[in-house]
Design the sequence.
């Protein structure tokens, strides 16, 4: 997905947010960062996905402030908070498994999608904990049916992770896929960027004890293919099934690598327009080749 002009205000909001987070109360430095970013942005190639542009901003903030992992404390708190919820959520899935016509995989997927709201790159005030307890249900049934058909025993499933906090909910999905006999590998970012999960986070929450965890090589808030490690690209080629979590992964892979299942919350109008789903919906869709348009529709989550 190419960056659009609609993305520009969001980048400026993020620039000011991160400048203030890195060096509070240093107004002169904040102004310098915004002015420098104002000069840089017109020179950047908007034909790349938005996460690539975001990586230039992250590099600028780090250079100007000396701060690398801006959201370290936030990420720790998010992981802790969702870990505290995990036992009760596991009980919900167990109950779904025991219920007549229950669908524990579908429930685990819906919970994992709600976790995508834990995103510091988007300015949203959402009670994601409340949504965990009141799922609307109804992810696109046709695409979910196809996904389930491909999640076969012995199959290689690659999950492209996204945010901290969200990674804890992804563990529920990993467990369900493993119970179906799938071999699951979970991918994280190679460098801190916004509040995305890294190997350190995967170790903290216990994902590394649950399944194989690998780094993609990227330093962007999305799996930008030309920044991935060669070995990781081979993993993507060899996978029987790829599930990309998060809006950043959708932005990076749509129109670039077809046939990837994407699960995320629609958190900006531009993505709503591209996905065909209203703002705030849970999206479960397939990436397409450039210009074709991927499949989703009325079956999304309310």
Sequence:
């Amino acid at each position: 997905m190419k960056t659009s002009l609609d993305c520009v205000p969001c980048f400026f909001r993020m620039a000011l947010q991160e400048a203030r987070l890195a060096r509070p109360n240093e107004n002169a430095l904040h102004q310098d960062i915004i002015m420098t970013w104002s000069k840089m942005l017109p020179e950047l190639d908007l034909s790349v996905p938005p996460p690539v542009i975001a990586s230039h901003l992250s590099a600028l903030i780090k250079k100007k402030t000396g701060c690398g992992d801006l959201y370290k404390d936030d990420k720790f708190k998010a992981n802790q908070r969702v870990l505290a919820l995990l036992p009760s959520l596991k009980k919900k899935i167990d109950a779904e498994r025991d219920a007549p016509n229950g669908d524990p995989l579908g429930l685990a997927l819906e919970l994992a999608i709600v976790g995508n709201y834990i995103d510091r790159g988007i300015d949203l005030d959402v009670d994601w904990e409340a949504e965990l307890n009141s799922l609307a249900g109804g992810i696109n049934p046709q695409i979910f049916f196809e996904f389930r058909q491909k999640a076969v025993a012995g199959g290689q499933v690659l999950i492209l992770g996204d945010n901290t906090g969200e990674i804890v909910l992804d563990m529920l999905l990993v467990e369900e896929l493993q119970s179906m006999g799938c071999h699951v590998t979970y991918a994280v970012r190679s460098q801190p960027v916004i509040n995305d999960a890294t190997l350190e986070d995967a170790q903290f929450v216990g994902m590394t004890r649950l399944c194989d965890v690998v780094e993609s090589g990227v330093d962007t808030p999305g799996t930008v293919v030309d920044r991935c490690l060669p070995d990781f690209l081979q993993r993507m080629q060899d996978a029987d099934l790829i599930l990309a979590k998060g809006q950043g992964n959708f932005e990076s892979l749509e129109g670039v690598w077809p046939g990837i299942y994407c699960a995320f919350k629609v958190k900006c109008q531009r993505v709503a327009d591209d996905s065909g789903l209203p703002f705030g919906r849970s999206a479960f869709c397939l990436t397409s080749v450039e210009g074709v348009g991927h499949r989703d529709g009325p079956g999304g989550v309310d």
User: Anything to note?
Assistant: The chain has two domains: 5-65, 72-286. The CA atoms of residues 88 and 209 lie 20 Å apart. Residues 5-65 form one domain.
